[in-house]
Structures are given as C-alpha cells and as structure tokens.
Amino acid sequence: MEVISIHLWAVLVAAAGSFLLGAIWYLLLFGKIWQQLVTSSPRDQKNPTQAMIFTFLARVLSVYILAHFIHYTQADTWLGGLETAFWIWLGFVVVTCADEIFFANKGIRLYFINISYHFLGLTMAGIILAIWQ
Description:
By secondary structure, the protein is mostly helical. It contains 6 helices and no strands. It has a domain at about 30-40 and about 45-130. The protein has helices at about 10-30, 30-35, 50-70, 80-95, 100, 110-130. Helix 1 (about 10-30) runs antiparallel to helix 6 (about 110-130), helix 3 (about 50-70) crosses helix 6 (about 110-130) and helix 4 packs antiparallel against helix 6. About 25% of the residues are buried. The mean pLDDT is about 90.
C-alpha cells in the first residue's frame, strides 16, 4: 500500500471553511426553514457545544478522506479538485442522504437543503486541497 503525504494545514483550513459554511447555511440562509423541517433545533439540544465539536471533527475526517481521493485522482488544479469532490458528493452524499426521504420521512426540502450544503462544502474543500498540495 502506498503511503501518501496529506497536507494537514490544507485539511484543517478546508474543514474550517466547510464548518463555517455550515453555520452560514443552517443558521443564516436556511435557519427558519431548516428548524421547521427537523424534529429538533439546536436550541433543543442538551449540549450544542458538544454537537458543534463533533460536527467539526466530522468535517476534518471528511476532508481528510477527500484529500486521499484528490491524491488518487492526481487533481492539482481547482477544476480537478472540484470535479473529484463532485463525484464523491454524487456517489456518496446524494445517495446516502436519500435515506432521509425514503426511511425517515424528512421530506424533499430538507434533503435538498442538506445535499446542497454538502455539495458546496465538499467542492470548496476539494478546490482548497487540490491547489494547496
């Protein structure tokens, strides 16, 4: 198995950017609609700080894995990073999040809010990772 070098600063910056995008997306842009569509709001959580920490750590892991795909596809331009992230998003996020519609009865509006955020977050991270190698 090939040992690859992942630029950890790029991973952290891309994860932080994705996390901040999530704050803007879910609090400012779609906050009211999102809160109506989910069964609980951040205010209903017993420990929202813990949820935010775990969400950030999830972003770091997601971006770290994306960095491997960026390496494997040899994406070294912004367009290559965007394309790699797009295929990851389409093949894993769009399909996996569809469970919200089929099994959790969350509805198509929530589905599109969520997958749109993940599209922007992953493609932004893919661009950062590809150009900052």
